[in-house]
UniProtKB/TrEMBL annotation, chains A, B:
<keyword id="KW-0436">Ligase</keyword>
<comment type="subunit">
    <text>Homodimer.</text>
</comment>
<dbReference type="InterPro" id="IPR033721">
    <property type="entry name" value="ProRS_core_arch_euk"/>
</dbReference>
<keyword id="KW-0547">Nucleotide-binding</keyword>
<keyword id="KW-0648">Protein biosynthesis</keyword>
<dbReference type="Pfam" id="PF03129">
    <property type="entry name" value="HGTP_anticodon"/>
</dbReference>
<dbReference type="InterPro" id="IPR006195">
    <property type="entry name" value="aa-tRNA-synth_II"/>
</dbReference>
<keyword id="KW-0067">ATP-binding</keyword>
<dbReference type="InterPro" id="IPR016061">
    <property type="entry name" value="Pro-tRNA_ligase_II_C"/>
</dbReference>
<dbReference type="GO" id="GO:0017101">
    <property type="term" value="C:aminoacyl-tRNA synthetase multienzyme complex"/>
</dbReference>
<dbReference type="InterPro" id="IPR002314">
    <property type="entry name" value="aa-tRNA-synt_IIb"/>
</dbReference>
<protein>
    <recommendedName>
        <fullName>Proline--tRNA ligase</fullName>
        <ecNumber>6.1.1.15</ecNumber>
    </recommendedName>
</protein>
<dbReference type="InterPro" id="IPR036621">
    <property type="entry name" value="Anticodon-bd_dom_sf"/>
</dbReference>
<dbReference type="InterPro" id="IPR004154">
    <property type="entry name" value="Anticodon-bd"/>
</dbReference>
<comment type="similarity">
    <text>Belongs to the class-II aminoacyl-tRNA synthetase family. ProS type 3 subfamily.</text>
</comment>
<dbReference type="InterPro" id="IPR004499">
    <property type="entry name" value="Pro-tRNA-ligase_IIa_arc-type"/>
</dbReference>
<feature type="domain" description="Aminoacyl-transfer RNA synthetases class-II family profile">
    <location>
        <begin position="43"/>
        <end position="295"/>
    </location>
</feature>
Length: 500, 500
């Protein structure tokens, strides 16, 4: 069996494989602060590409970016009990505003600088943004308010995993205010669509759009929608959420406006977000036992050129050829952007260098040696090709965008095939238990249900959760049926899975 | 006298004028958290444009973005005494990681969740990034490391002022590691140049590049360089800094590498940063008694179109004309970017609407009424024109980029003229004292000096600081001279001023 670049492999130890891919692809590393990661340049460039595309879509859909404080006064979290239950428990609490020498050569929080009211490092910003919106909204003329924030947030997690669950993470949070419930609901669904299109179109990660059951709803939300993806270990990943908050937050935060009839009424709000967790989803959707595979639309580099030479004479022939190849490639366009091309001239053995780029998942790898120069060709491979092939240089330059497009499609198709193969329609509790029994591969189970304690207890026992009730029927579209857990009538199937 | 849109005017009360411009231009507002501001969409869009341009330059000069933790363990600040003195005193200290009910219907930091080691919200990231770099650097082959981070930082300030001095602010911090002192020095100066080119080229804000005196140096730095601008009240604003850190941080953080001879040695590091303070500098460079004036290169919108109509019939003629005008304008380019054009169709009185855009400082304002439609013309004004003029529509579309370029240049010229008029060469202590005497307008004084306690005491008494020793002679380039404060020999003049 061929040796793999990542050890252990997915089948040997999936969680450890994941950590090794993150490391081998130079995406991130644990920092000196418990639960916080350092996002390294290759990982951050992926995030920047995610940001840029989403930001463009947010602006196209009428949203403006703004920035709100990192800190939330503790009293803001006290105001809304349900919200406190959900978010405020594990968080970073700022209690002092000064350090002073502790008399033993070290430092201590200065007792004289204790804050009258502790500040919480934002776990999410509904409360502070809501308080601001309450000042901004007076009249129906001020509506809608369509705001997005790119920010860092902190949730004190006990068990962390790079990108998937970290104490500090980067995200965007959209917050909007509307005059009517209908408009707010429309916004909630519109942004869910933006997320789904991004996940499938740019990340090549197929997702299910659906509504969360009551137990999985965002605290305080009237309805929570999510996009759910399936990772290669058949566990689900919630990749983005969009919340219709009804008037719950508006009432807690006094977001009121005067309507055209001159009457005061509470507004309707939404919030929606995706985070650096998407990078985790991207890894677990596409990486293989040789490391990361970047979907071309998000790849920090579309292609890397690896010059190969043994002496100065060869170097003098190969390097200029590589430079001009890079320049030619960089004039080509893929997906509306110029090709991002790098040359790796580092003083490393060719094999080591090549494998570094395989592990980082660069879509196209081009090796150029003296013989390629002589024959005006290149030795090129896409990340999904077993081996590279010699190809005429001009042809490669012309074909590169097409190769990227094919790779993007291959990744989506492969991920969708894996998901579809792991998706089943289940109609009895016995089958449900068998599907999620220990030692079984599991996957996505489409089953009729009643949202209530019987379902929740059974799911808990099986370590499964209802991921969502799909908005568009995907599997088992047979109308109403019988709830697996209560025997009662069920109108819709939910998708059940183990989840990250 | 004409009524101004901003009250008070600059001459009546400059600090209050500043706050009113920030408010009237919809740039930012105070938040519910002491010392932290909410950056509103118009202000944030300015910052995004600043970011985008700088980020492009950072990447062109070989830097990669990355992200490091928000928190710094207290012990990291203890390690380097000098650094602690300078930065760690007033900061946000996280001491607990959980809230719990306080038994009185509220919340409290949970005593059981007290952190063993307090965490500091980063005031700057030298220590945590340095600890990371120590892991990344092993060999000369790993150098240089050229990293930038876009982030929020917190410094607990007692007296805050939006954009100029806030507890939380947004910035970028470059951090680099080099094998030699020369390379690190070159990097320090290169990034200072990037800042200066940006300030003058994009912000239209003339700056002086110079080196800080010892007392004004970044704690722990071997040399600190800055760009200094003069505001309309003749006070200086430090708009960006670039630090040559020597081996000081490398020694504290054990950033060592094996050189080509196989010997271990300490590396040389730099750091450099600009922040949302630049927005404050932009305001105080260009705004007038009618509000903000956006330099076209950074303006969130280059032009706003204001449709004017009295009834549905006029509306039906005017709006499509405005839409097609917007589309035409948006195909024009200024400074390598498509024109950013908005139509303001809000249901507001024409005068109110127009003045909102004046106060926000949009470079070009275009009013379109039924008569303009009939005559295929527009009524257009740049933000620096007293009144608008009727102009043929096609001509306006063709000329818009040129008008923006002229406005950009006018702003720079005007700011430079104001600075030059307030710059003097001073050769006696008596003149120095008279220049900075209470009731005098002050400005920038170029004077010979010796870096030491006599100068510092005198400056302190006059509430003046040495801003920098200019790298390129600007005024008073008369070689060596006599220090105003000690009578000793002085090789160079420094620029002295009151400062923000
Ligand atoms: Zn919250
Ligand atoms: Zn520091």
């Amino acid at each position: 069996m061929a040796k793999t670049a990542i050890s252990p492999t997915r089948s040997e130890n999936y969680p450890e494989w994941y950590q090794q891919v993150v490391k081998a692809a130079d995406l991130a590393e644990n920092s000196d602060v418990r639960g916080c990661m350092v996002i390294k340049p290759w990982g951050y460039a992926l995030w920047e590409n995610i940001q840029r595309r989403l930001d463009t879509r947010f602006k196209e859909t009428g949203h403006d970016n703004a920035y709100f404080p990192l800190f939330i006064p503790m009293s803001f979290l006290e105001k809304e009990a349900e919200h406190v239950e959900g978010f405020a428990k594990e968080c970073a609490v700022v209690t002092h505003h000064r350090l002073e020498p502790n008399g033993k050569g070290g430092l201590q929080p200065a007792p004289s600088a204790k804050l009258e009211e502790p500040l919480i490092v934002r776990p999410t910003s509904e409360t502070i943004i809501g308080a601001t919106f309450a000042r901004w909204v007076q009249s129906y003329r001020d509506l809608p308010i369509l705001i997005n924030q790119w920010a860092n947030v902190v949730r004190w997690e006990l068990r962390t995993r790079m990108f998937l669950r970290t104490a500090e993470f980067l995200w965007q949070e959209g917050h909007t205010v509307h005059a009517t419930a209908e408009e707010a609901q429309e916004e909630t669904r519109k942004m869910l669509d933006v997320y789904a299109e991004f996940a499938e179109g740019a990340m090549a990660m197929p997702v299910i759009k659906g509504e969360k059951t009551a137990g999985e709803r965002f605290p305080g939300a009237a309805a929570t929608y999510s996009i759910e993806a399936m990772m290669q270990d058949r566990k689900a990943l919630q990749a983005g959420t969009s919340h219709f908050l009804g008037q719950n937050f508006a009432k807690a935060q006094e977001i009121k406006f005067q309507n055209q009839a001159g009457e005061f009424q509470y507004a309707w709000t939404t919030s929606w977000g995706v985070s650096t967790r998407l990078v985790g989803g991207l890894i677990m959707s596409h990486a293989d036992d040789d490391g990361l595979i970047c979907p071309p639309k998000l790849a920090p580099a579309h292609a890397v050129i690896l010059p190969i030479f043994k002496n100065d004479e060869e170097r003098a022939a190969v390097l200029p050829y590589c430079e001009s190849l890079k320049n030619e490639l960089s004039t080509q366009e893929y997906d509306g952007e110029k090709l991002r091309v790098r040359i790796d001239t580092r003083d490393l053995r060719g094999g080591e260098k090549k494998w570094q780029w395989v592990k980082r998942g660069v879509p196209l790898r081009v090796e150029v040696g003296p013989r390629d120069v002589a024959s005006a060709s290149v030795f090129a491979a896409s990340r999904l090709m077993e081996k590279g092939v010699g190809v005429e240089r001009a042809k490669f330059v012309a074909d590169a965008p097409k190769m990227l497009g094919e790779l993007q499609q291959q990744l989506f198709d492969r991920a969708k095939r894996a998901r579809d193969e792991a998706s089943v329609v289940i109609d009895t509790l016995a089958d449900f238990e068998a599907f999620f029994a220990e030692g079984q591969p599991g996957g996505l189970a489409y089953a009729h249900f009643t949202d209530g304690p019987e379902m929740e207890a059974k799911c808990k026992a099986l370590k499964v959760t209802p991921r969502c009730v799909p908005l568009e029927p995907l599997l088992g579209d047979d109308g109403a049926g019988e709830c697996l857990f209560t025997g009662g009538r069920s109108e819709r199937r939910a998708v059940f899975a183990r989840a990250y």
